[in-house]
Specification:
Number of strands: 30
Distance between the termini: 32 Å
Largest sheet: 5 strands, antiparallel
Shape: globular
Oligomer: single chain
Number of domains: 1
Helix content: under 10%
Strand content: 35-45%
CATH superfamily: TolB, C-terminal domain
Radius of gyration: 21 Å
Number of helices: 2
CATH topology: Neuraminidase
Length: 450
Amino acid sequence: MQRLPVGRVALIIGTILIVAACGGATGGSVDDRFEDGFDDEDSYKGVTPLTTTTVVQLGPGPTTTLTPGPVVTTTAAAQPLAGLEASLVADGFERPADARSPISDDRIFVVDQPGYVYVIADSEVLEEPFLDISDEVSFDENERGLVTIAFHPRFEDNGRFYVFYTDLDFTAVLVEYRVSDDPDRADPDSARTILALPQKYKQHQSGSVAFGPDGYLWLSLGDGGGIGDPDGLGQDSTNLYGTVVRIDVDAAQPYAIPPDNPYVDTADGVPWEIWAYGVRNPWRMSIDNETGLVYIADVGQEGYEEIDIVPSDSGGSYNFGWSTTEGTDCYFKDEAKKEAAAAGALSCDKTGITMPVHQYDRSAGGCAIVGGSVYRGAAIPELHGTYFYGDYCNGALFSFRYVDDEVIEVSEWLDSLGNITTIGTDGNGELLVTNLQGQVQRIVPVRSDS
């Protein structure tokens, strides 16, 4: 394996990517890491105006359809599956935050939080970055920085891809780029801002980007940060904070609103982009294009890490509960109210809230869930259709299957993957894990001889 060039490989260990979202799980006060808010409290209530066309248009359905994924064989392997292990693909990255591949592409694209995207090809990290926007990224070794990459369903034909990052004005932005004539280099002049959302605090940008079987772009957005949702944005559906957004990036610029989004033509004051709301810091949302299910892993405040699963073709309008609830429990920031709730003397109104299908507390050392993907690769046919997720703090890799609206076969596979930052997939559907120790690892099967 080849390391990155000297000068870009300062290995940072012990710093925090998403643990600050956990209410100080590593000790110390999370408040100490907050920035001062904007002077105008309304300045972060909506989408930042862009200098280009900004009118969100009501458009037709998407002009593209999702390219089918690789065909895999699910016949059981000759040797029984004895477990899983992590195989190092590359290391030496500064703060790898994401690793993805376009469908059927043998390259791996690694997002490094300071503002770089690198390509791993033929087991080597190419020296020149695929994309370098480090001069445009606000990076603070916390949650700010470049955190996500996603590829258009027709990337092979149109070369379009999307990144999500914090800019120098502390605004979270979704930007489209195109590949240059060199397939291993992006065209920096092709940047087109799709959406921008000012950030008051350092945490809870979220920023998972995925394309669903409907061809639309889906984006998860955090509640804006702060302990216990101090600005009440989680349940305020009149802004984009704490939401899942669904937009059409093909029908108009910067985007069009899918006509079947749940709040189109309503008089409720809800932005038409919103498909669901009531999330805190969804650190990785994925869509299984075989079943159409949306998997949302939402980092908890102090009690529970949760996973929400809903059909992408259901029409949306889900309220996942934050900050009325955390997991399936009522959430109270005030200590006296917490004690009263624990004693059964205080409750909350859970009417209309969609509860998580799975949650776990922090008794086993976890503190921040990291969502992954449903496995659709060929190397581990026994686990085809299994959803994988991890935890930033204990470095564990978990999985379950979701069958007939029920979570089954909950398993823990590994517990030493470092401070996990993402669980992605390569072009063939195999699992990739990045960690704060600068590594990209592939999850591979361990098979017994008998």
